Amino acid sequence: MEFFDKLGKKASEAYKITADKTGKIAKETKMKLKINDLKSQVNDIYEEIGKKVYEKHKREEEISIEKDLEEECIKIDVISDEIDNLLKQCLELKDKKQCPNCYKQISIEDKYCSNCGAKQTEEPQNEVEILKNLESSKIEQDNKTEANIIKESLKEKIENDNNQKDKEQIKKESVQKKEQTQKGQASRKEKNKEQDHKQENKQLDDNVKKDITKKENNKNEKQKESNLEKTVEVESDIRIKKNNND
User: Fold this and answer.
1) Each residue's pLDDT tens digit, 192-238
2) Three-state DSSP class for 122?
3) β-bridge partners, 96
4) How far apart are CA 147 and CA 125, in angstroms?
């Protein structure tokens, strides 16, 4: 009985491991597809930048990164951050990380890079975590003044960072709104173009029908005239024959 219990547990563990691996593979595949799509978007933006630069070159005009290319650069920054985040998640699924010195993939637990030997530093705490720990810690009376100065400095830094993030978010939303507006305008233009085309076709059909009707009417008029002429000729012949007989 104990043998079957162990066998059942091993089978259950094997199933969990397999299911976990399958889930990770599915997540990794989904993220890689998303990364490829984002890279394709970046390449499209590069093409837009190249066109703008070349058009300026043709017109012998100076190009300003901030004025002429800011929108495209913001898009690339946003997409690049998303790509980096997805790549990091892909590595974490495989219990790996990237060496910041040589960019080699290594084990997430490695303290030193097996490729270049660089020491792997842990990600530092952010200001919010430091402030939270500082406020929850018991501080001795002699160090309270210094601690308060540090707290105020951290609060100011956090506020500035939040303001900067808000500005970047506003820029991002502005870019997205502009894109949606451009898409909407393009869609409306396409619809108007399609409606104009339909109207032109309808007008053409109406003109063709009018021409056909006109031709048929002319043909009928000519046929009537011809019939009338024949009738007149017949009547004339009849009168001549009658006169001759008399």
Assistant:
1) 888 877 887 788 778 888 888 888 888 888 888 777 777 777 777 77
2) coil
3) 107
4) 17
The domain locations on the chain are 1-121
What confidence category does residue 122 fall into, taking pLDDT thresholds of 50, 70 and 90?
low
What is the chain's alpha carbon radius of gyration, rounded to the nearest angstrom?
A: 41
DSSP 127-139: HHHHHHHHHHS--
The arithmetic mean of pLDDT across residues 102-131, rounded, is 78
Residue 84, CA distances (Å) to 56, 79, 161, 171, 238 in order: 32, 9, 20, 20, 106
- Three-state SS at 154: helix
Q: Where are the beta strands (DSSP E) in the chain?
A: 96-98, 105-107
**What's the rounded Cα separation, in Å, for the pair 111 and 95?**
14
127 close to 157: Cβ distance less than 8 angstroms: yes
Cβ distance 116 to 101 under 8 Å? yes
Q: Is the entire prediction scored with pTM above 0.70?
A: no
Q: What are phi and psi of 168, to 5 degrees?
A: -65, -40
Structure tokens at 228: 């009338």
Short-list 107, 77, 80, CA closest to 95: 107
- Cα separation, 150 vs 131, whole angstroms: 9
